[in-house]
Amino acid sequence: MATTKINFVAQRQSVIWLLLAQLAALAPQIGVLPLWMLVVWALVAVWYWRIVTAAWSFPSRWVKTGVSLSTLAGVYFSFPSLFSLEAMVTILVLAVILKLLELKTARDHWLILMLSYFIVACGLLFSQQIGALILALIQIAILLMAQQSLQRSQAKALPMLRVVGVMALQSLPLMLLLFVIFPRIGPLWTMPLPGGEATTGMSDSLEFGDIAKLSQSGALAFRVQFKGPMPATQDLYWRGLVLDEFDGRRWSRSSWSLWSNKIAAPLLGEQQLDYTVTLEPGNHKWLYTLPLAVVRRDDVYYANQHLWMPERPLNGRLQYSVSSHLGGTLADTGAANRKNLSLGRTPNPRAQALAAQWQAQWPDSKDRVAAAIAFFKEAPFIYTLTPPLLGESNVDEFLFDSRQGFCEHFAGSFAYLMRAAGVPARIVAGYQGGEFNDRDGYLLVNQSDAHAWAEVYIEGQGWLRVDPTATVAPNRIRLGAEASLRGQKGYLGESPLSLRKFDWTKRLRYFVDNINYGWARWVLNFDSSTQNDFLLRVLGDINPQRLMLVIMLAGGIPLALAAFFSLRLPRRAGEDLAARYYLASCLALSSKGVVRGAGETPDDFARRIALEQPCWAAWLNEQTRLFTVCSYLPQNSAAYQENLQSLKRGRRPQKWLGRANVKTGSVSK
What we know:
disordered N terminus; alpha+beta; single chain; elongated; six-stranded antiparallel beta sheet; four-stranded antiparallel beta sheet
């Protein structure tokens, strides 16, 4: 096979920096990319390196086609859908990797670098924490250094990094200006979320064992900032979703609750609790509040099951302000008796017989509820993350055989008993408790705080919360999930490296979370509403004249100063910089009363100064030596530039003597 001639004229160092930049862009995406992608990159990188250094040939069209099709097949089998965000990013990364196999010109080199910037930006789709930002800045710095390697004869890391730092400082004022002034525009299209589903963990259906799985996760669900004292842990029932349809095994939302379910917002009492909830990124179909609640957002509504729902699913990080009245009555909003008595298709004869006994013995619904609570209190139930598997009649097997379960077991079986006893009942899914970060005074609600409880309808009183878990495992409600579950098998099992497993890391966790929370509050949640409020506080009134004034002050002046100090007039053709700096040295010495004579050569002048003014002799000898060396070196050589810079820095004798004294440890007189 004939060797293909490489038209790309960059040196090997440029190729090294290109491969390093490509690796820096790809490696942090390893959590998204399949592992075999790194193997593909390594093989392609080695192949291209051999093309540059050992005159290997570029692959033929058939080879490139085969490699492309095989890697695309790998993407197809690595993801459940090619339209997921992870698959799309993987295809982009694959295109950047395989582009090396046809990199022949400087244009191709630049194209790979520009596409690598897109890969860095894609990483921020999966995480916007402050750590992800720092990592992205490091990646961008490496890419900028790779760009400089194309224009430098010697691509040394430190000088290139210095240029990157100067560029960052120069762009900082403009970046801050655009962040504050540039209008926040809503998304023009909907992007598939990572994993294709919400990342908040809670599903819109529930079966025995589902919430126990969430306790294996160390991920954060949301944060809460209270404007006053935080309620007691046992009062923190974060109501998210009502599940009122039961098919015998799984609880889900009934079809009638999914449409035409808007009602008027509740009227709260005088004792209100104000707080702000910040949900982690996800596809949010419902909000979490402490009932009764009023949410202050224009794109949400109050639903007929006392829930706050968005007009359409809201993607990304979500923040909303809430006012709640704890202990408020949840009135019936329609069809309670008709919709919340179904027992599903699967028979549970022992549970039905027990409930029928209560119904015959206690005509008052409240007495039947009390009888059920007493049953859970007296029976030897065990609260555990690893209950045994249950068969078809799962309620009977749990209540009378295994008696081991998690919160969904207790809530689901309690609601079943109540329905069998003629008391309307349903399940509420959400979170209970949380972890208080006393460094900044806010609550962390984690996935492991996921919880389910029951609600029963009592005529004349409305819907009342009944949590059988509080009867079986009171510490779970009083102290929180972490205090009661730590040490159990499976707790945080999906997060083996979670710092929450160790008590001694608590202060470190709180410190890191403070940084991430501040980043989320002041940067990630800087939406159009926050921007408008900020500009009103700063400007008093938003109009074009004031905006232009802010742009000139915050943007124009810093940019003008940067341009003034960075721009240089073009050097005159043929100008000898070495002679210019040497004459500047002589001029500086003349201010000390020592003047170089007309026609006096540099060497003669240095010898005369050594006799007449020996205090300046060492400095002038060094300047003369540097001038002589520069006069005989090619101006495009690295040695010339190095000596020229030394001559430039030493043209003022006081500064030179100060540096020399520091180096030698002597004291100038």
